[in-house]
Amino acid sequence: MRVGENVIKTVRDIEEGLVETLRKLRKRIETLESEKADLLKEIEGLKKAAEKKAETLEDEVSALKEEVKSLKELLGYAE
């Protein structure tokens, strides 16, 4: 092989390596985008669950405040 042929082979090998790296990176990006979508769905579900729990707790607090008010009235405590 001549020097020029060696350079051409080296360049082709480098090109093949870069093409393979690009292919792997595209696949990895695709995987990460899919994982991101799954995580965003999970986060949305967790937000909804947290909001529902907060509403439930607010209702419980209101009920307890009413209960305290009623007990104070029963026992004759002034507000």
Describe the structure.
With 79 residues, the chain is mainly α. Helix content is 92%, strand content 0%. It contains 1 helix and no strands. It has one helix at residues 3-75. The longest helix has 73 residues, at 3-75. The termini are far apart. The model has no long low-confidence stretch (mean pLDDT 95).
Q: What descriptors fit this protein?
A:
79 residues; mainly alpha; 1 helix; 92% helix; 0% strand
Structural class: mainly alpha
Beta content: under 5%
Which H/E pattern describes the elements? H
Distance between the termini: 102 Å
Major sheet details? none
Radius of gyration: 33 Å
Tell me the number of strands.
0
- Helix content range of the residues, please? over 70%
Q: Note poorly predicted spans.
A: none
Principal-axis shape equals: rod-shaped
How much is the average pLDDT?
95
- Helix tally equals 1
Describe the structure concisely for a colleague.
The chain has 79 residues and is an all-alpha fold. Helices cover 92% and strands 0% of the residues. It is built from one helix and no strands.
